[in-house]
Fold this protein.
Amino acid sequence: MANRNRKFAVKEPNAWKVPVEPNGPAASGGGGGDGVKNKPQKPAKTATLADDNGVSGSKIPVPKTTSASMIKKSQEKFNQVQRQHAETARKYATEYVSSDDEEDETTGGASDAATRAILGDVLKNYHGIDADVGKTQEYLQNLLESRNAVCLICIETVKRADKIWSCHSCYTFFHLMCIQRWANDSMSMKRINHEQQEGYYNNRGEYIPKPVLSVHWDCPKCRKEYQPQDIPRHYECFCRKEQNPAAHPWLIPHSCGELCGKNLNPECGHTCRLLCHPGPCPPCPQTISVSCRCGSSALKTIRCSQKSWGCTKKCTRKLSCGIHECVAQCHEPGKCPPCKNRSKQRCLCGAKAKEVNCHESRWQCGTVCNKPFPCRIHKCELKCHDGPCGECPLGLPRSCPCGKTETRAASCSERIGTCGDTCQKLLECGQHHCTERCHQGACGNCLVLVGKVCRCGATTKEVACHREATCESKCKKVRACGKHPCNRKCCDGQCPECDKVCGKTLPCGKHKCSSLCHQGPCYPCNQKSVVKCRCGGTSIEVQCGREKKANAPKCKLPCRIHSKCHHQNPHECHQGECPPCTQPCGQPNDTTNCEHPCGARCHAAVKVVTKDKNFKPIGPWDVAQEVVEIKTLPHPPCPVKVPVLCLGGHETADWPCSNSRPSSCGRICGRKLRCGVHQCPLVCHKVTHRASTTQDSRCEACTAGCVIPRPTGCVHPCQRACHNPPCNPCQVVIKANCYCGLTQVFYKCHEFYPPDLEGTDKGELVEALKQRRASVMSCGQKCIKNLPCGHRCSATCHPGRCPNPEQCAKKVKIACKCGHRKVEVNCNVAKATPTVDCDDQCTLLQEQKRAELEKQQEEERARQAMENQKELEEYERKFNRRKHRERKRREVQQEEGGRSWIYLLPVAIVLIAIAVYFLMLQI
């Protein structure tokens, strides 16, 4: 498309290499070189066909069975057509005139020097680096040299004098009128498409509403979205300072020639210094003095577009952990990377510690908190967390796991178990309920087998309710393009977009779209069509192809169709069927055969839609055909209100005439039964005499039991039939443990809850009940409980604590401090005086013990002295030996004889101690 209007540089007369005869008119050059500079021609090669007949100048293969006359006639016809084609091509190459020639005539034919002059003027104010402005310079140079700007909407050349609009994103040119029409038609088609869309139910039964209408229009090339208020209304220059700029031969087309002045991108506070130009602005060439990213280096003069530069220093700021320093190279303050050092950090609850990255210091160990709640009974079951645990959840009102029985426990320590009923919680499928007994924890998956339709709706099969049904059938649904099928397996209806050529018929129904297959409507048709009302008296013009969808014009003329009922139904001209008659029927009601006329809406001609009941669909796509008929419906029941007395004679109500028969009013009969206590519990029923208030033959006889309240505490019902008070005493035998728990007692209920005490005074009643119940619950035996002192209670079986524990009369022994004197006294006396005073004999015994102790100590000292003497002699015997053998032997014998008493001394001491012990026991 870019080379469509470029001139042809014809170097040879035969530009398309068409083979011609050397002696024909094409070779003579009769008109092939007019107005075209050609090189000297070379003799064209002659295509010859050598065969037995000598025919030449053709490349057609000739069968051997063909006659010579047929070959000659065919060859002449071929040469004639060949000459015509060559002449036509030569004429087209010579007389071709492009649209650029028209511009050369109006502008005087700008030369290469003029192009360079224009580029120089535009770029004269730019003092940056040449490489930065290269993109803008190349865009301008291609625009001036190629002269091939084409409007992508109408596929026509954009000339100098045309009013244009350029996209803010891709800078592509469009005719102003084309882009306005494109924007308006795009938004119009989106509104129409949105009106045609409807919500639908997906395979889960959820209603998916249609998407929200988003009215915008897109650039035809880059598809940048623009709002309705962005539709261009005026022809402006590229910098948008001047409207309707004049065409100047020495300026860029559609430019005002002033400074651009647009804010540069990225925004730096400076504006573009080039002359008004198409395409992007170059980077900012201004020089500024800035420091590096971290700000630690000295100011440096640099281009504004390159103002972000980094030094070689490393950052030394403290990281978020507050321990380590940042070691990254020069960067902006506050943008330090996370600390990658590892340190030992405790979890949120502080129970565990592990080595983690510093920026991940807040971590959870997974341990259950287990801290006690304020109730000091239960503990927190949450996993590792910080902060307080909150209140005990078991202290709030609770229910059983299935939620049917709710209660408020007396304390959080009371456990609420399962109720034993069926769970009946709604499962995740939202359709079935849990059939297990009331249980702890979550319910399982729904295992009920249900028939489900697959995503595409082609098949139905039984699967578990929590599973999704799929099939192997391929989707035959046409994609958004309306032409190509989806071919996906078990498609849910959300088919992907089509990537083939569109080829769809435009909304007008007469033309086809030649663009690629796309999403959304094709470009609308520009033709107009006439739409008339039903009677043809009023007409309007609409866009081509919208005749069926356009609403018919409103016509004020009266409708010419006769009414189908017996009323006159005047109305204006309209499309479709006439509106139904809204007048009352007014004819006699033959349904109820009453004297009231039918007051319902006219039903003499009503549209009735019926379906074939015997229809059997072949598949889910097969739908029973509906039959629409105009029928006369019967009169409805008469709704006039008439007074009617109920069956039991309780009330008179207004009922419709069609149902004016006595009926039950819904109240309880209330007639007093023969027992004199109860009333008839039946709902209003038919009776013999409606005005009577006593039991009728059709009333239900009294079958209730005794309803007289039992004495306070008695839970056994009276076994007699309904009767007048009083009831017989309750004879139910109750077994219970006695007060002491040693045996079981049996008593009758009326002995424990007597009815004869109901009328007495409250204080006297309480005292009498206590005495009676104490006599009933006591077994009469001696109490088996022990008093605080440890002795058995002496009272008879009694309730509560044992009486008078401080007056215990059991005999106990108390002794003096030395333990010699002992006295037997009562237990209550022993508590007051736990010891007795010592006498003279106690003092004498103490003196004897003291003398014996001193004697033992003296003997012990003597024994120690003898042992020491023995050891000393033994030592001298070993180290001070004498020379004479006889004397030494004699000394040894004497020593051995003198030491024999040492062995007898311990024996004597033991015997003395035994004697003293027995002597003390006798005393």
Notes: Confidence is low (pLDDT under 50) at residues 1-66, 95-111, 886-898. The radius of gyration is 61 Å.
